[in-house]
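Progress note, sequence design subtask.
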């Protein structure tokens, strides 16, 4: 086996939920006559999802959703899987990136799976001639869901999309534990610096931010949270963290991680305030949370190491990891979320793909929640793989919970 196949083999043994789904897919072929277009992080865990969809009868066309997250050996291994066509390439140019998107769409797909909504955006702008053939899609990440809900609110989303990111089995595990562990691990392995005792700034206290704050605190960091939502800010305060504006945090922080999915979180007014040796990284989706163009335009000096760009600003060194892209995937040794976490997220993707293939024609354009039975199925399969049993409601308990006139 080549290195890509070895990575995929390793991932499979820790993805029992997707393994159970694959067994059914291989037997029933529920995705026959389906062309699936995918723009995801092309690495081993994603490859196991792709294999599962192909085992279900789908013809799968995949490219990357981030120029630095593709693992070329995995992309090569995917091209040897029957029914799979991979166009992803690591460190591709902007032109090559969108060229991969277009190659995927050239297949005239019926179902899309996105991480960031680039496929759907392209379909609704540059490739509108393909829209009539699309049954529906699935979206993996918070940023993509924000963009899709905006599209839907404007009446511009022309097919149904399942918000895979927004269901409990995704948010509570992938976002909290997956981003929390993998982003922190990437910072540590890239910089080899200590977390304990440092002022650790988390921008945004959504599911990703709270997971990251919890993990950093567990290693002894003094955690600062910045927020725009007063409710989340209060929650962070009650969870024991320091809450302040980024203007204040910039003066104090040693390590910064943005998790907002928005743009211009750390900007030109913040960099001159920072300590010498400050480390900046991003765990949101796009590389717009840290203002890299400002650093490039105002640098007094520059040093480059594997995964670390160091800018000299007013005599102080400020280091940015992974060019401001997803730190858990884009640093040289970034492996993304832990395998067991992505087993759950990709199980949701597989079952939602099956759902949209079967039900998409009945739905109008818009964003839809993951059906509750799919979320429960994934949780149940995971518990079964762990040999964990839970209670069930008795008939009387069910009646009590659905009645208004049985006691108090």
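Output:
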């Amino acid at each position: 086996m080549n290195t890509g196949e070895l990575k995929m083999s390793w991932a499979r043994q820790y993805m029992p939920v997707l393994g159970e789904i694959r067994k059914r897919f291989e037997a029933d072929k529920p995705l026959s006559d389906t062309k699936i277009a995918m723009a995801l992080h092309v690495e081993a865990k994603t490859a196991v999802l792709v294999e599962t969809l192909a085992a279900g009868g789908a013809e799968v066309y995949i490219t990357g959703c981030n120029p630095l997250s593709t693992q070329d050996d995995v992309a090569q291994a995917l091209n040897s899987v029957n029914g799979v066509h991979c166009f992803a390439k690591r460190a591709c140019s902007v032109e090559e990136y969108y060229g991969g998107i277009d190659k995927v769409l050239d297949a005239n797909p019926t179902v899309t799976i996105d991480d960031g909504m680039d496929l759907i955006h392209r379909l609704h702008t540059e490739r509108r001639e393909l829209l009539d053939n699309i049954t529906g899609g699935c979206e993996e990440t918070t940023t993509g869901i924000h963009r899709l809900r905006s599209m839907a609110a404007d009446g511009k989303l022309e097919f149904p999309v399942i918000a895979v990111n927004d269901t409990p089995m995704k948010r509570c595990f992938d976002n909290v534990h997956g981003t929390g562990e993998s982003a922190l691990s990437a910072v540590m392995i890239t910089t080899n610096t200590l977390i304990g005792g440092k002022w650790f700034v988390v921008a945004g206290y959504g599911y990703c931010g709270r997971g990251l704050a919890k993990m950093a605190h567990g290693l002894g960091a003094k955690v600062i949270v910045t927020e725009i939502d007063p409710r989340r800010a209060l929650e962070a305060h009650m969870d024991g963290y320091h809450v302040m504006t980024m203007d204040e945090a910039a003066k104090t922080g040693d390590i910064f991680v943005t998790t907002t999915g928005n743009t211009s979180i750390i900007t030109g007014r913040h960099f001159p305030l920072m300590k010498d040796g400050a480390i900046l990284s991003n765990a949101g989706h796009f590389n717009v949370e840290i203002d890299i163009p400002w650093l490039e335009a105002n640098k007094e000096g520059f040093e480059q190491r594997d995964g670390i760009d160091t800018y000299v600003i007013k005599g102080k060194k400020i280091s940015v990891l992974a060019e401001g892209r997803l730190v858990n995937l884009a640093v040289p040794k970034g492996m993304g979320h832990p395998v067991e976490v992505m087993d759950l997220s990709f199980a949701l993707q597989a079952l939602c793909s099956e759902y949209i293939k079967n039900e998409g024609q009945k739905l109008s354009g818009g964003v839809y929640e993951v059906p509750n039975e799919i979320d429960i199925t994934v949780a149940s399969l995971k518990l079964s793989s762990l040999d964990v049993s839970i209670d069930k409601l008795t008939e009387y308990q069910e009646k009590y919970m659905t009645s208004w006139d049985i006691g108090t």
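The mean pLDDT is 96. Work on this subtask will continue into the next period as scheduled.
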